[in-house]
Design goal:
75 residues; mainly alpha; 77% helix
Amino acid sequence: MGSFSIWHWLVVLVIVLLVFGTKKLTSGAKDLGSAVKEFKKGMHDEDKPKAQLNDASRPQDSTTTSQTEHDRDPR
């Protein structure tokens, strides 16, 4: 009485497919998968030390600094 047989689950699956349709279920599953992937990526990025993140976000060449100083000089 407490557990359902395979036939009960098949009937529930058929009703869900009829109500929502396969297109909505497929797109919902894709959205859920991409959300889980982004969450895992965010958790992995959080594990990196702060110094590595700051070094990676800085520009590598000094041309941006010299161009900014050049723009400030009115001569």
